[in-house]
Write a structure and sequence with these properties.
six-stranded parallel sheet; alpha/beta; four-stranded parallel sheet; homodimer; DNA-binding
DNA sequence: AGCTCGTCTGAAAGCGGTTTCAGACCAGGG
DNA sequence: CCCTGGTCTGAAACCGCTTTCAGACGAGCT
C-alpha cells in the first residue's frame, strides 16, 4: 500500500494521531465512538481528520474487526430486468445497515457460479444467492461452509438454509386456472434455463392443471431471453394449442414479436401469457397478461434475512411470497377453430 | 475475526503452514507463484490447503498487497435498464483482470452520490462513475483526491479526467435530422433528470436543429421513467407539435401508452422517438424509432480504461462513442392538419 | 579442501486499523 | 493523609497475509 506515484498519498491513522498529538487508539475511539474521550481530544482529532482528509482504510478495518462490512450477491444475468430490481432493494437494505454490496454475475453459466460464490465468501460477511443454477451437490457443499448464506428463489429439499422465494407453483397454477376458465384445453409452455429451479417449479404446476382440464406441453427453448421466445414460437403454431405460457415476460415478448410478424392475432387466435410482470411492459404497447412477482419485497426481505443472520445467528424459516395474476390484453377465449376440433 | 459460534472456523495461512510443515512465507509463495519452491513442498502445501479447505482472507491480502482487487461502480438507478447492461460489461472486464465489482446506487439523489463515492474510494482500487449527477464542484473535489476514477457519460469541461461517453449531441442531431427530413417543423422534447449531463447534451442538439428548420420545445418532466412520460404527454397535445422526442425509451414508452389510451395514432397523428434503444423494446410491440447506444461497448471500454489506469498511470484521452439512428415504426411524416397550419 | 556464488527457505517486519491491558490521574472516603 | 475505585489514555498485541532480509545449503571453481 506504498505511495505509488500519481496515487493519493496514504493518510493513515497514525498520521492523524501525530497531528492531533494523541494515540492511534484514541483516534479510533473517537471515530467509532467506542469509548468516552475527553472533548478536547475529540476536537483535536476531528480537526486533524478534516485537515488531512483522512479516510479509514476499509481493508484494515475489515481485518481488525473481522467483518468486511460487505455483502455479496450472485445473480445469473444482469441483463434480465428481474435481477436489477432485486439488487436495488438489496442494496438499499444493505446500506441501511452500513454495508456495501458486491455483485457478481454468472452469465447463466452454472459452472462459473461455484467459484464466484467461493470468491464472494472470501470478501463478504454474507452472501445472497439469487436463483443459483448450480447443482444441488455444489450448493450443499458451499452451504456446508457455515458462511452466512441466504438462498433466493431456490429451495433445496433437505437442506436447512434460510431462504426466500416466490411461490412459482402458485403463480403458474393461477395462470392455468385463468386459461382453463376461458375454455382453453391445450397449451404450450416455453421453458427457461433448464438448470433453473424456478423453471422446474413452474412446470410442477402443470400436473395440477390437468385436474382442471388443461394440458400443457413443455417446450425447452433454452434461455430466458426474448430471442429464445422469438425462435421457439413458430413450431408451436403447428400444434393444436390455443395458448402459450412462458418462463417469463421476456420470452413472452419475443414470442409476441414473432407472432405479430406471422400475422397471428393475440389473443383472438392465440393467448400469450407472461411471467414476472416486468414493470416496463405494463406501460408499453405489449399489455401482457402475466403474474407479478413482488421483486422489491423479495430483495428487501432477502436482505433483511441476511442481516439478521449476520448479527444473531437466528434461523429464519424459509419464506415464500405469493404471486398475483394480472389479466391484461393478451389472454382471451380460445379461437373458434381450435374449439371445434 | 474470532471464531463466532455458528461461523466457519477460520483457517489461516499459519494453519496451513503448520499442517504442511513449512513457513507461512512458503505457503504464500506457492499460492501466488511469486517464487520458485521445491516441488516437494509445493505438493505438501497443496495437500494441506485442500485438506483444510483454506481460502486466503481477502481483507488481509488487500491490506498486505496494497490493492483491494476490487473496482467500484456508481450508478444513478439500477431500475433503468441502461445501467445493468453497462454493469454487465464492466463486471466481465473486471473479472477478466481478476477484480471484483462493488456496486452502489444513488437512486437519482445527487446529494447521496458524494458520500457513496467517498465510500467506494475507501475500498476499491478504482471507481467508475456512471452518469454522475453531482455538481461540478463536488466532482472536482473527488477527482482531486487522485484516486483512479473514470467518468462515464459525463464530460466536465476543464477537468482532465479519463472519461468515456456517448455522443448524445450527435445522436439527438440525427433524430432531429430524421424528423426534419420527414417534414416536421415543431416538436416537443420530454426531458429527463434535470441534473443529468446527458439531458443537457441532448438539449444542446436542438440549437443546431433550428438550422434545418425544426423547432424543439423542451418540457421538463423530471424523471427518466415511463411514468414521467405517461404524465407529461397530455399537455403536449394541446400545442401544435407533430412529434415528441424523449430523454430515453422509457419516457417514450410511457408517452406511447398514454397516447394509445387517448386514441392518438402513432405515427399517423404524432411521431414519437425514443433514445438509448433498450433492447427489450426491439422485440416488443412498441417498435420504437430511437437512437441506439452501444452500452456493452461503453461498459467494456470504461472497464478497460480503468484497468489501464490501475496498472500504469497512462492518461487516456476522453472517448466518445457514436450513436446510431434506428428508424422503426413510430416516426412518420407529420399529420395533414398540422401541415396545413 | 576452501571459497564464492546462487538458490531456496524461514523469521520477522510491515500493511492500517481495533482492542486489550495496564498505568496515570483524580475524586471521594476512611 | 493515604488508600481505593473509577475514568480516561497510550503502548502493544493482534487480525491474516505479503515481502524483505538474512541465513543455510549445495554446486562449481581454483
Amino acid at each position: 500500500m506504498q505511495n505509488r506515484p500519481g496515487r493519493p498519498p496514504r493518510i493513515t491513522i497514525s498520521d492523524v494521531s501525530t497531528a492531533a498529538n494523541v494515540s492511534a487508539a484514541t483516534v479510533s475511539r473517537v471515530l467509532n465512538g467506542t469509548a468516552k474521550v475527553d472533548p478536547v481530544l475529540v476536537e483535536r482529532v476531528h480537526d486533524a481528520v478534516r485537515e488531512l482528509g483522512y479516510r479509514p482504510n476499509a481493508a484494515a478495518q475489515g481485518l481488525a474487526r473481522g467483518e468486511w462490512g460487505t455483502i455479496g450477491v450472485l445473480v445469473p444475468d444482469l441483463a434480465n430486468p428481474y435481477f436489477p430490481e432485486v439488487l436495488k432493494a438489496v442494496s438499499s437494505v444493505a446500506r441501511a445497515h452500513g454495508r456495501r454490496m458486491m455483485v457478481m454475475e454468472s452469465d447463466e453459466d452454472p459452472a462459473l457460479e461455484y467459484e464466484l460464490v467461493e470468491d464472494l465468501m472470501r470478501c463478504c460477511d454474507g452472501v445472497l444467492l439469487c436463483s443459483p443454477r448450480m447443482s444441488r451437490a455444489e450448493l450443499a457443499e458451499l452451504l456446508d461452509r457455515k458462511h452466512p448464506v441466504v438462498l433466493v428463489n431456490r429451495i433445496v429439499p433437505g437442506l436447512r438454509v434460510p431462504s426466500i422465494s416466490v411461490d412459482f407453483v402458485g403463480g403458474m397454477t393461477q395462470v392455468c386456472g385463468h386459461l382453463a376458465q376461458l375454455g382453453h384445453r391445450r397449451a404450450a409452455y416455453l421453458g427457461g434455463p433448464p438448470a433453473s429451479w424456478a423453471n422446474g417449479e413452474r412446470i410442477r404446476a402443470f400436473e395440477a392443471a390437468r385436474a382442471f382440464g388443461l394440458d400443457v406441453t413443455v417446450i425447452e427453448c433454452g434461455a430466458a431471453t426474448s430471442q429464445a421466445g422469438y425462435d421457439a414460437v413458430e413450431p408451436v403454431l403447428r400444434s393444436d394449442v390455443t395458448a402459450i405460457l412462458t418462463y417469463n415476460d421476456l420470452v413472452a415478448l419475443g414470442a409476441m414479436a414473432r407472432l405479430r410478424e406471422l400475422g397471428v392475432g393475440v389473443p383472438e387466435e392465440l393467448s400469450v401469457i407472461g411471467f414476472d410482470d416486468i414493470s416496463l411492459e405494463r406501460v408499453a404497447h405489449a399489455n401482457l397478461t402475466t403474474v407479478s412477482v413482488p421483486r422489491d419485497e423479495l430483495g428487501r426481505r432477502a436482505g433483511e434475512i441476511l442481516e439478521r443472520l449476520l448479527v444473531n445467528t437466528s434461523d429464519d424459516e424459509p419464506l415464500s411470497l405469493p404471486m398475483t395474476l394480472q389479466v391484461r390484453d393478451t389472454s382471451g377465449p380460445p379461437a373458434r377453430h381450435a374449439e371445434e376440433k
